[in-house]
Amino acid sequence: MRFKDIVENIKVYWSKRSSTSRIGLVLFFVVYLIIPQPFIIVAGGMVLFASFQVVKKVSHWFYIAIPAIMIIYALGLSLFILMLFLTTDSVTEDEYVITEDPLTTREEFFYKEMIYELDFYQVDPINTDHILNFEMLSLVGYRRGYWFNRAPKDHAQLLMTPHSNLPDVELEIYLYNQSGAELAYYSFMDNIHEVIRYEVPEDIISIIIQIENIQGDILYDSGEIAIYHDIDYNPNQIAKGGQYDPNPVATYVLNAFAAHLGALFIITMLVSVNNTYQKWIKKVTK
Fold it and tell me: Whole-prediction pTM value?
């Protein structure tokens, strides 16, 4: 099938539609232009199942159709992801507000890694005592959601990076709310040298971090850490993180364009592969 044939089929299909049906198609097309992602995913599944009718043999489907479709969609997805990186605005590292608290090289690395993942963050981190056998850097940050799902409220996160100066330190990390109820538990060794991200529920106004040894002795207590679900009323300093987008509307438009570009690439490649396959079938059956 050539592109000329596809255009002709579209014209024939349009000519047979009623006025109501045409209005519905126009509205559908407008919605698709604005929010293409879910339609592209559904269309991909439909194409996958439609290929059963095109491919002549089961063996061809496994040896030709599946690899071809997977490669095409992988390339289309790669193109889409590439466009995300090219079109998404973000704050560069030299614009980060670094805390005035003295940090070691390792702590500064984790600090930058944490704030890069956030739209906003409280500048001053919560740091444990260096006299202890362990260290932990904690930070309260806020996310507004992905570019296609921005929320009116900022969702709070508690980020923690535990690390130890001693091997095989068996410690436990507990999170409590303002009433003393346990919210979460983490094994120190399971998360050592990693960033722990805890999504703070909407009803939590403060969190307490406690670190205990296996005997249950409390080695560290952070005290109450204020959580601001509306950062406009936060009396502390709030800075823009690496995921902060100064113009989300423009970013969304560019990303929607990237989705359309990826979809166009996929359609082009599928038509090309189908034409090549049909020619090969005719050649083999002669």
Answer: 0.66
